[in-house]
């Protein structure tokens, strides 16, 4: 390459010709790129690109369960939103619009759980150390656990990916593939169970009076939808027969609540109690 006529990349120092560095991809910026109008062009491009990928990914998730995971693991990625970013976005939406309690528990629920003695001891130690009463502890804990519980939803991904890896051990898939599948299925679980269904209930409550204990009606709807979703996703992603996909979906939706009840809740309490001010 003729270094005398080539451009020197300001980012990595590479000599190249053209508008983009062939090593790091940095663009050559001119006077036009420094105009105010160019800022609006970049903003519009980002929003349209972001929205297009996001809508396509969500639409694919709901219309063809397992397709997003299958395509992404097969290298078809350009038209999709990144899986990790998608799950993060869902969690952020859940943080901004906490329509449902989800996997969060009140401090009283922790005290009466299988780790209740240790939870009670930790609570008493916190009250003594900060010289507060039980009412203040409850107020502080509930305010913090509402946020912590949503962040800890990321724990669902490796746990359910581990289950999928064990169930499909003979297929010798990379653990990365199971993680992507877990992101899609758990993303649907959070999006459907903690955002869409509660939002629909709120909209319905504006028109008609609904019972206070809505979980009696919504829980079967959420679980049934998730069972069907995991069944269809597993059929498409792993190529299971109907029988094996049915077994997989039942085990998936059995292990998920068991993990949430026995392990996730324990982690939630001790993480929350240790981050309280």
Main sheet strand line-up: 1-2
CA-atom Rg in angstroms: 24 Å
**Uncertain ranges:** none
Strand share of the residues? under 5%
Q: Number of DSSP strands?
A: 2
Fraction of helical residues: 55-70%
How do the helices and strands follow one another from N- to C-terminus?
Answer: EEHHHHHHHHHH
Mean pLDDT: 88
Distance between the termini: 61 Å
Quaternary state of this entry equals: single chain
Description:
- With 277 residues, the protein is mainly α.
- The chain has 2 domains: 1-30, no CATH class; 82-275, no CATH class.
- It has 10 helices and 2 strands, in the order E-E-H-H-H-H-H-H-H-H-H-H.
- The chain has helices spanning 36-63, 67-73, 83-96, 107-111, 116-130, 134-151, 156-167, 175-205, 215-238, 242-275, and strands at residues 7-8, 15-16.
- Strands 1-2 form a two-stranded antiparallel sheet.
- A hairpin with a 6-residue loop joins strand 1 and strand 2 (15-16).
- Helix 2 runs antiparallel to helix 8, helix 7 (156-167) packs antiparallel against helix 10 (242-275) and helix 8 (175-205) packs antiparallel against helix 9 (215-238).
- It is globular.
- The protein starts with 6 loop residues before the first strand and ends with a helix.
């Amino acid at each position: 390459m003729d270094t005398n006529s080539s451009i020197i990349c300001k980012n990595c120092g590479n000599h190249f010709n053209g508008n983009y560095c062939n090593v790091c991809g940095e663009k050559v910026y001119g006077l036009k790129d420094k105009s105010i109008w160019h800022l609006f062009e970049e903003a519009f491009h980002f929003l349209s690109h972001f929205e297009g990928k996001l809508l396509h990914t969500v639409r694919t998730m709901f219309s063809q369960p397992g397709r997003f995971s299958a395509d992404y693991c097969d290298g078809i990625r350009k038209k999709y939103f990144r899986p990790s970013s998608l799950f993060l976005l869902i969690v952020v939406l859940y943080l901004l619009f906490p329509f449902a309690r989800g996997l969060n528990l009140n401090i009283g629920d922790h005290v009466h759980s299988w780790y209740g003695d240790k939870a009670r001891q930790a609570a008493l130690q916190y009250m003594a150390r900060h010289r507060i009463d039980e009412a203040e502890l409850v107020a502080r804990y509930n305010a913090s656990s509402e946020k912590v519980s949503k962040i800890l939803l990321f724990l669902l991904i490796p746990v359910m990916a581990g289950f999928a890896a064990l169930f499909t051990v003979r297929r010798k898939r990379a653990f990365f593939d199971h993680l992507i599948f877990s992101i899609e299925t758990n993303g649907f679980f959070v999006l459907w169970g903690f955002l869409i269904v509660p939002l629909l209930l709120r909209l319905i409550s504006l028109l008609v009076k609904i019972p206070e204990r809505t979980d009696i009606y919504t829980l079967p709807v959420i679980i049934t939808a998730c069972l069907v979703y995991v069944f269809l996703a597993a059929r498409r992603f792993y190529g299971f027969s109907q029988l094996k996909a049915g077994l997989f979906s039942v085990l998936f939706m059995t292990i998920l609540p068991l993990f949430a009840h026995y392990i996730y809740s324990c982690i939630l309490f001790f993480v929350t109690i240790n981050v309280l001010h």
